[in-house]
């Protein structure tokens, strides 16, 4: 899972974010990364792995190898991620690199220690939901405090300069390959549960990084502002709070809307003007 690119993997929107400030002290960052790694290991070993549920990124590859070889997940987490972190250490911020290596060590060790314990639920659906949330919040917490628990993002950043495909496309193809392999190795039902878990991982990471804010301010730049205003007023019953327009420049519309309305708002705007620019301020 590429934590740095998660917000742009499936969304074409241009987003502007204002995060809550994270304490900058070194001990606080270490505790945050360690807590995130422990939470992620709980999600993996006590919920996902006992039911054959995998997720994307190097964590998913590690899970597949663990199922196929019947070896410990923590071993593959360490072997697959550590070389990438070490090889790219000279390119990365030293603080990020050291916190990522610490998080990986805690995640691997936590996985080893929790492996003998029984699963906390015998039903795969709750396991996928709770395990996905636990893993996602853990990964997001580690990223929020300046580290990472999965090196796939760094790998694809390195491959980007050597491939015609953008990073987002490579990540998407990589994760699709993981789920296709999961169908072959562990069966269609477990793969379906894996997709559910991955969605919850994805959403909980976004929630951890962006914070819990239900309403956002949306800025729309378009030369067809009148059509957009009429459509949004008709389908969402919302009026633009501000309109800035000059003779040579596109109009700028500002809306305040609920997060749940954002996909519909985007669809309305793009139907009216496919070339419009949408920015979101949390």
Automatic annotation (TrEMBL):
The keyword Magnesium does not apply. It is found in: Cell membrane. Keywords: Cell membrane, Membrane, Transmembrane, Transmembrane helix. InterPro entries: UPF0750_membrane (IPR051461), YitT (IPR003740). Pfam families: YitT_membrane. Its main location: membrane. The chain crosses the membrane at residues 30-48, 54-80, 92-113, 125-149, 169-188, 194-216. It is a multi-pass membrane protein. This is Membrane protein. It comes from Paenibacillus aceti.
